[in-house]
């Protein structure tokens, strides 16, 4: 069997995703500084979420959940994988082109459905205007997702993982150029988004050609293989996109409160950093690896890959969760509080960060558990679980809003995330030992928990003893840096003492990969 290097793949995807998230933070810092929470930023968030929502459903979610396992198995068996990818490309291109056309025609309706609270004020018209410009981005990114799936299935992760960096480079450049020229900053930003999409598509297309797989535009053909892929993809749309649905429901509820959409968006960007670096990396690398191992009958290898990915997830998720719950205010203050982003905005966003932090392990575990189903081309089970989770999310978001106000969507999203994890765990029990963690994982899991809790205690003590330095002008940056260094040192020291972190073993795994 052609091996996918699990650990090197995880670190490659994680590195480029980290770079993308850091640049994404730079983008949001510039956005909040130049524009700030308010009508314009609310309208931009609502408009930009539309192509991202459909992209994650339509391409990265539904399409790749069906395409990657089927392509990986054909690649493993030398069954004309390139022809399969060519047919999939043509079908996806036709479907996305139709979607873009419908989106442009019904843009006001889409904005109303996802941000009904905007209707009747200036935010609605701005969101519709921005939506017309940014919505075509979905076409370029959906096609880029297919090429990324091809690259990931062949074990070439770098180009696909690096492509999102381009969007943030283009966006940061546009924001700075708009501010320096004295023009309309938001207009510069929305105009550059589809241009960045073209650049991302070009990068992964060229990388696919260099990998020896040539794909060219052509007429779509609904072959039996394509029909089967569509049948798998339709339920995967909801299963993979549950987080996006929950975000849209949250936006719908939050749009009733001015600035709330902006606050939740800023909080979302913060917790997406570890989710992107760890959770998305695990999902991208684990799915083709499991698919090919199951095709080859390597059940022990599949269990080992699942367990090692679980360790990787746990090691980086739990300390992030603790930090979000204990020091959300310093994090938000240092990252966003400048320009148009006030201390009031910091307090509101920090509350959302803490609530999302409770749900972070659940969002991570979903990325780990869903490939168990998708590698077996089972998208119906996660679909059913997602329906339950979305009902919980919508019920809590709308039900809690009269009681707790705009923070209700964050509470609902975290609760629904944990409900989804419980259902995935219960559903995976029927799959056999390859869907269960091995003894090494069980041996280390509680040690990771203990190290994270110990870090939390030290961080809690430090913030209460020296937190006053965060209030001094100019000192908050240094104070946060010290807090993070203390937290990291404590976590790695306790992890080493407890046996949760073994540096030599990790280096050996990377050398073998």
TrEMBL record:
The record's keywords, sorted A to Z, are: Cell inner membrane, Cell membrane, Cell shape, Cell wall biogenesis/degradation, Membrane, Peptidoglycan synthesis, Transmembrane, Transmembrane helix, Transport
Identify the metabolic or biological route this protein is part of: Cell wall biogenesis; peptidoglycan biosynthesis
Q: Which residues cross the membrane?
A: 29-48, 91-113, 133-151, 158-179, 185-208, 229-249, 269-288, 309-327, 347-365, 385-404, 410-428, 448-468, 474-494
Q: How does it sit in the membrane?
A: Multi-pass membrane protein
Residues annotated as coiled-coil are none
- Name where it's found: Cell inner membrane; Cell membrane
Protein name as catalogued: Probable lipid II flippase MurJ
């Amino acid at each position: 069997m052609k091996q996918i290097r699990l650990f090197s793949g995880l670190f490659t995807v994680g590195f480029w995703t980290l770079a993308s998230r850091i640049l994404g933070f730079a983008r949001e810092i510039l956005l909040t500084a130049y524009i700030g929470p308010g009508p314009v930023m609310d309208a931009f968030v609502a408009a930009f979420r539309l192509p991202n929502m459909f992209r994650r459903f339509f391409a990265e979610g539904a399409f790749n959940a069906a395409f990657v396992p089927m392509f990986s198995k054909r690649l493993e068996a030398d069954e004309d994988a390139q022809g399969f990818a060519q047919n999939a490309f043509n079908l996806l291109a036709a479907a996305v082109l139709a979607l873009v056309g419908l989106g442009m025609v019904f843009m006001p309706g889409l904005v109303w459905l996802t941000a009904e609270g905007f209707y009747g004020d200036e935010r609605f018209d701005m969101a519709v205007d921005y939506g017309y410009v940014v919505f075509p981005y979905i076409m370029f990114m959906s096609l880029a997702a297919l090429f990324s799936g091809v690259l990931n299935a062949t074990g070439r992760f770098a180009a696909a993982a690096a492509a999102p960096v381009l969007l943030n480079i283009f966006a940061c450049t546009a924001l700075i150029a708009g501010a320096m020229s004295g023009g309309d900053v938001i207009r510069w930003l929305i105009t550059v988004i589809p241009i960045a999409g073209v650049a991302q598509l070009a990068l992964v297309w060229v990388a696919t050609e260099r990998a020896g797989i040539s794909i060219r535009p052509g007429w779509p053909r609904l072959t039996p293989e394509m029909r089967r892929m569509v049948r798998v993809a339709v339920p995967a749309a909801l299963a993979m996109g549950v987080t996006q649905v929950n975000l849209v429901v949250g936006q719908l509820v939050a749009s009733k409160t001015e600035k709330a959409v902006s606050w939740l968006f800023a909080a979302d960007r913060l917790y997406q950093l570890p989710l992107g670096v760890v959770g998305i990396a695990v999902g991208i690398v684990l799915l083709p690896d499991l698919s090919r191992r199951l095709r080859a009958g390597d059940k022990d290898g599949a269990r080992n890959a699942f367990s090692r990915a679980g360790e990787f997830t746990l090691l980086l998720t739990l300390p992030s969760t603790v930090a979000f719950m204990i020091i959300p205010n310093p994090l938000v203050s240092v990252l966003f509080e400048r320009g148009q982003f006030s201390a009031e905005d910091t307090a509101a966003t920090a509350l959302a960060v803490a609530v999302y932090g409770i749900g972070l392990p659940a969002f991570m575990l979903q990325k780990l558990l869903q490939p168990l189903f998708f590698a077996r081309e089972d998208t119906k089970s996660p679909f059913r679980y997602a329906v339950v989770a979305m009902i919980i999310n919508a019920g809590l978001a709308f039900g809690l809003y009269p009681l707790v106000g705009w923070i209700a969507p964050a509470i609902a999203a975290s609760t629904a995330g944990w409900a989804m994890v419980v259902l995935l765990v219960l559903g995976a029990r029927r799959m056999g030992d390859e869907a269960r963690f091995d003894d090494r994982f069980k041996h280390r899991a509680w040690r990771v928990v203990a190290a994270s809790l110990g870090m939390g205690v030290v961080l809690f003590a430090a913030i209460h003893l020296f937190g006053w330095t965060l209030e001094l002008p100019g000192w908050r940056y240094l104070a946060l840096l010290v807090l993070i260094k203390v937290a990291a040192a404590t976590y790695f020291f306790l992890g080493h003492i407890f046996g949760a972190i073994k540096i030599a073993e990790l280096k050996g795994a990377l050398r073998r990969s």
